[in-house]
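Moderator note: this is an archived Q&A kept for reference. The question asked for a predicted structure of one protein chain; the sequence and the answer are reproduced below.
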Amino acid sequence: MATESPFVDQEYFDRYARAQALMERDGLDALVVSEKNNYWYFSGLISYQLDHIQRPQICILPKSGKPLLLVYGNDKAKAKALPWVGEVRAYTDVPFPQEMIAASIKEMGLGEAKLGFELGDDQRLGIPVNYLSGLTEALPKAQIKDGTTALTEMRIIKSAREIDFMRKACDISVKAYDRCLPQLKLGMTRREVADRLYISMIEEGAHPRHPGFLMLNSSTRYDDRRYNKGDRMIADFGACYEGYYGDVTRMTIFGAPTDEHKKDHEMACDVIELCFESMQPGTPLAEISRVANRELLKRGYQAVDSPKRIGHGIGMSRAEPPSLNEVETELYRAGMVLALEPKVRSEKSAVHLEEDVLITEKGPQFLTTGCRDLSIVQ
């Protein structure tokens, strides 16, 4: 059976090697992941059950060797076809037999091990919390630990193939907006705009099941409010390609733009470019907020309140670590992909634009372009 994963086998073996080195560093004997994207990242198993709260999927990756997967029965054949996966154990249906977790861990020789779960900041369990108390009772000598440090490190640095997918997601996002704009008219509702942009993302290559996301003027309420002359539309959106997101924000004016519209738009673009220049490998991410604030204050705009961030990591989630703010402790490192979105605020308005940036060994590289274009709908 051919696998459905968009990655070659070696991608997963490389992930396991990295994760196992991090487990050694962090004093863990295994990682136990169940959150949708972490599970997908390590297993490569594309399954509709990832969205099914009653049918958990669990990957147990030991410090050496291949992982064991616990899967819903209908996914057993697909899981067993994955050459990078070790043992596969399937359950029939709901209710999930939570005793399978302890039994599998024990039979893997991990009954007295230090087990890293998704317990920290920016992590979520894909199983009920009471499963952990049940595991503690079933395996009293095992230690439930937080595996967040290793999990975050794994996903914060993208592989070459992941970056290829993100380039494509960014390209789809930009092209979708260009495709959508000629369809917009004065008096359109937010629902009508959202429909057209989602369809445009799919037409440009986003997956129909996960085309991406969209906020219009900081809202996901696609209602009957209309865009009339003088209205400013801020579209924060991004297409999803092979499970990886782009994230861009564009500003469009319905009717003729005012001088204030033009000034705010130009300022937002200028701050993005200044921040971009500061995103050099080895530089603290925390510096970027200071760069933005110096320019904002110099031009009479409001500073960004700490710890408000002006950007974030992107990948399998549209927002993930690290954060671009003054309290972030990370340095810029090659392989990071970051959404850069400094806010421009005055007493009268609030505007932000957004571009995606890849950090390379030689410096930052834009993955999206075009925010300088102030779009107009007549």
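Archived answer notes: The first strand starts at residue 30 and ends at 33.
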